[in-house]
Amino acid sequence: MRELLAQRLLVVTGKGGAGKTTIATAIGLLAAARGRRTIVVEVGHQDRLSALFSLAEANPGREERLEGDLWGLSIDPDRALLEWLQVLGGRISGRVLATSGTFQYFAAAAPGAKELVSMVKLWELTESKRRQGRAGYDLVVLDAPATGHALGMLESPRTFGAIARVGAVAAQAERVRQLLADPARTSYLAVAQPAGMAVTETLELERELQRRLGLQLHAVVVNGMLPRRFSEQELQLVERAKHPIASSAARAARAVHDRARAQQNQLARLRRRSFAVLAVPFQFRAELDLEALRRIAEHLGRKL
Hints:
The chain is an alpha/beta fold. The protein has a single domain (2-226, 276-301), classed as P-loop containing nucleotide triphosphate hydrolases (Rossmann fold), CATH 3.40.50. The protein contains twelve helices and eight strands.
C-alpha cells in the first residue's frame, strides 16, 4: 500500500456518495504532510476544496494552495479546452480556435473529446517540466467522477486517439494513455461503503477496468465502518437486564452490533481479492470538516 503515495497519479473513484472527495482530500493531506508536493484535482465545476479549506474565494480552473505542500484544482472543461487549443494552435489565439465552427462540431461529435481535455490537463500536472515555468507536482490525486463516468473518462485517450490517428492530438492522447497504463506512475483506488450493493459495484469496477482498459484496481478504501464495541457474550448480559433504560440501550447496542457484523462480512468479500483493502471508521459528526479529514488522514497514514 505504501507505493500509492509514491505514484505520480492516483485515480480515486467509486459510487457517488461513497466519500470519494473525503478520501481523495485525506490522501492529499497525508502526502503533503510527508513532504510531497501534492495537488487534489476535481473534475467539472465542483470546487468543494475552496469551501473546505475556508479560502476567501474560489478560483475554478486555477491551481491554488490549500495549505503547506497541498494544492487544489477544479478543472473547468471550457477553460481547459482554451488552454489545450492555445498549445495546439501555436500563434493562433485559443479563443479564436474555440469559436471555430469546425472545431466545435468536431469536439461535439467526437466521443471523449471533453474528457480527453481534462485528462491532458492531468498529464500536464504530473510532468516535472511544465509550460510557462510552472512547478510540477510529486503526486496528483484525481477525485474522479462516479464509476460509470470515470470509466468513460479513462477510455477517452484511446477513443479519441483512434479518431485523430496522427498529429498533435493523437500524440497527446497517446501520452495520456501511456500514463494511465503505467503501473509505475499511476494507481487506481476505489472508495466504497460497507454495504452489499456498494461492494458488488466495486467488484464490477475491478472487472470493467480490466476488460475495457486492461487496468488493475490497486486498492479499495471502505469508508464508514462502524466499531464493534461489544462481544456477543457482553450483549447477552446487557439484554438480560430488567430496567427499561437498560432494555432500550440493549436494543440499540444489538442493532449497531448486527450492522457492524454485516459490514465486516462485506469487508471480507473484498479482502478475498488481489487488491489491498483499507477500512476507515465512521465519523460521528453532523458534517465532515477539515478536522475530521485530518483524523481520516492520520488513520490512513498508519497503512500508507
